[in-house]
Specification:
Homeodomain-like_sf, mainly alpha, Tet_transcr_reg_TetR-rel_C_sf, single chain, TetR family transcriptional regulator, DNA-binding, DNA binding
Length: 200
Amino acid sequence: MAVRRRESTEVRQQQITDAALQVIGKKGIAGSTTAEIASVVGISEGNLYRHFKGKEDIIGSVIDKIGRDLASILEVAATVDDPVKKLEEIFRRHLAYIEEHVGIPRTIFSEEVLVLNEGLRTKVRNNLMNYSHGIRAIIERGQEAGAINREMDAHAVASMFIGTINFTAIRWVMNNFSPKLTDEAESLWGTFAKLITHST
């Protein structure tokens, strides 16, 4: 008889969080249960509650994971010198990240998060602010270097950048995940880049 390996709390929490994102991608938050999440991990529901207080706690962990992953996208793009190409790298990676994890838009834009739960909504808002500040800093450096139109408000450009990604993700979910986000990235980025680099 095989002996089941006992994972550390940190590893098990990560497994549960990843499983929750997967289940939410299929069924949304309302349709997801702790029993099904536990089943995906390969543990009992009782064991799951050793690592999380309940479903809300798990959703909070999913939101934290998304925030960390977006921060990682910013870090990877930091190796690109050209500010416009840096933004393009982030844009493409962000869309690819969403395409790989359907549960992201089904978590972030859910009624359970945006309307019904102040704690979860605050987590999303803080993650969005941190990500937006990172994007805005790149835009401002691009303006200083003359690569991005100085007459455009950096905060507005950052909002347009994130808004384009978010609207595209919502439309993608509503259209039953078609067309592929990575296929749309080319034309979307091309249009956005022309807007921010054109001098009036």
